[in-house]
Amino acid sequence: MQLGMIGLGKMGGNMKLRLEKAGHQVVGYDRNPDVADVGSLGELVAALEGPRAVWVMVPAGEPTRSTVAELGELLSEGDIVIDGGNSRFTDDAVNAAHLAERGIGYVDAGVSGGVWGITEGYALMVGGAEGDVQRLMPIFNALKPEGEFGFVHAGGVGAGHYAKMVHNGIEYAMMQAYAEGYELLEASEFVDNVPEIFKSWRSGTVIRSWLLDLMDRALTDDPELARVKGYVEDSGEGRWTVDEGIRLRVPLPAITESLFARFTSRQEDSPAMKAVAALRNQFGGHAVKSE
């Protein structure tokens, strides 16, 4: 099958290679001319035979919205646009409606797999009309991991990105749990070899996972994590997950706390904890450490 791919970074570039290895023809466009096959979106559309399928793999937000809008002016009736970035699910209905005015289909695809996807496969959570999704199945089958798992048609437009949002919220909480366990083990006077404990958990335990495998890998490379600063960004999905928990009145204590822990990581000296220390000193005369 023929596919246009817009955005050839860490994810998009590797996805292109995996698709080509599976026998698909991928025409790629990127702002970096060194990795692009064509020099513009117009050239990309012209290089594809109709009905076309174009996968957008650029940063979420305005870069994706503007790319989809431009494609709406270039593509033809019967073509399909796939947004495979980490867009907020609320953007999908807007994008789909804009394209529908021209008879262009729209599919949102939540993609998980990171830099390992090129060899391990990409987990795909897809939203859109049944006919559009079925037409793209050769692409999805080439990208997904081998076997019965790793792909879901989650529902209509927006469902794919919604599923990916929740996936990433869960990921936040799982990483936080491993991290807290790591800190407790490091603090214990009873434990001598923290990296080997994580390694032992990779088989036979109920907490084994790919994240645990990656934690083992990190500790093998840097047993005391001395080369890593304890500063963690968030890319948006965790916040959106918490927002949805509030909107739907669904309690998400673990996911919410894992998001707030990332905020804490960015404070060199927490103003809130300064206030707590001051209050303890006021009511109980507890000692306060000076700057």
TrEMBL record:
- Residues folding into a coiled coil are none
Residue intervals of the 6-phosphogluconate dehydrogenase C-terminal domain? 160-287
UniProt xrefs under InterPro entries:
6-PGluconate_DH-like_C_sf, 6DGDH_YqeC, 6PGD_dom2, 6PGDH_C, 6PGDH_NADP-bd, 6PGdom_BS, NAD(P)-bd_dom_sf, Pgluconate_DH
Q: What is its EC number?
A: 1.1.1.343, 1.1.1.44
On whether Protease is a keyword of this UniProt record, the answer is: no
Task: Show the GO MF annotations.
Answer: phosphogluconate dehydrogenase (decarboxylating) activity
Alphabetized UniProt keyword annotations? Gluconate utilization, Oxidoreductase
* SUPFAM superfamilies reported for this sequence: 6-phosphogluconate dehydrogenase C-terminal domain-like, NAD(P)-binding Rossmann-fold domains
Report the superkingdom from the record. Bacteria
Against Pfam families, the record matches this protein to: 6PGD, NAD_binding_2
The record's comment on protein family reads:
Belongs to the 6-phosphogluconate dehydrogenase family.
Give the protein's recorded name. Answer: 6-phosphogluconate dehydrogenase
Naturally occurring in which organism (per UniProt): Glycomyces lechevalierae
The opening ranks of the lineage are: Bacteria, Bacillati, Actinomycetota, Actinomycetes, Glycomycetales
